[in-house]
Specification:
Its EC number is 2.7.7.81. Helix 1 crosses helix 4. The chain is an alpha/beta fold and 229 residues long. The protein has a single domain, classed as Spore Coat Polysaccharide Biosynthesis Protein SpsA, Chain A (Alpha-Beta Complex). Helix content is 31%, strand content 21%. The strands form 3 sheets. It has a 6-stranded mixed β-sheet with strand order 4-1-5-9-6-10, with helices on both faces. Strands 2-3 form a two-stranded antiparallel ribbon.
């Protein structure tokens, strides 16, 4: 079977109640649930949460909430892999044997059903442990600068001061939308960012981290513009 797990704890700090705060007219988590449902990839779509209100919203949007996430997996320092591994273990203990498991973030309104389906194909065909969404940096990372303690600037890689941008290797970063993985990889805690992962490359205009109120405002503007286009 193929399983979607959407982690959504209740204790977000920088944007309170972020997972269910209205985004473009709907609770944020509903966009992720919609994409999972529309992808046609999953036998079950579950939300892992410690929060009753989030559970109610997720259920209303079409996901299952079959358990309450333990408190020791619901603090600010809990990583993604243990949360997914817990969900997979719960499923196995209750009669289901997922082969492929996709973590979809609750705060990823730009996630699309076709990208999720593409990620599954890449995972199956590549033989990788994971396949996850990435996008390219808009500026060469080799020419990045830092602000020093005395307010001055210096390059991270000064040897590339005179290197033409087109001669520098393109770099990518995590798009923060979804992570397909084989059950064994999740349960064994294999690292996602490794040579054992394959890339699902997304265009930059459909990627936006949402960690601060400023991010939120920018994301809604981008989201509206993309939908209108």
């Amino acid at each position: 079977m193929r399983l979607a797990v959407i982690p959504a704890r209740g204790g977000s700090k920088r944007i309170p109640r972020k997972n269910i705060k209205p985004f473009a007219g709907r609770p944020m988590i509903a966009w992720s649930i919609d994409a999972a449902l529309a992808s046609g990839c999953f036998d079950r779509i579950i939300v892992s949460t410690d929060d009753e209100e989030i559970a109610d919203v997720a259920s209303s949007a079409g996901a299952e909430v079959p358990f309450v996430r333990p408190a020791d997996l619901s603090d600010d320092h809990t990583a993604t892999i243990p949360v997914i591994a817990h969900a997979v273990s719960w499923m196995r203990e209750n009669g289901s044997e997922p082969e492929y498991v996709c973590c979809i973030y609750a705060t990823a309104p730009f996630v699309r059903a076709e990208d999720i389906a593409h990620g599954l194909r890449i995972l199956e065909e590549s033989g990788a442990d994971y396949a996850f969404s990435v996008t390219s940096y808009p500026f060469p990372i080799q020419r990045a600068v830092r602000l020093t303690a005395d307010g001055r600037m210096e390059m991270f890689h000064p040897e590339h001061f005179s290197t033409r941008s087109q001669d520098l290797e393109e770099a990518f970063h995590d798009a923060g939308q979804f992570y397909w993985g084989r059950t064994g990889a999740w349960l064994e805690g294999r690292p996602i960012f490794s040579p054992s992962a394959a890339a699902v490359v997304l265009p930059r205009y459909r990627v936006q981290d949402i960690d601060t109120p400023e991010d939120w405002e920018r994301a809604e503007l981008m989201f509206t513009a993309v939908r209108e286009k």
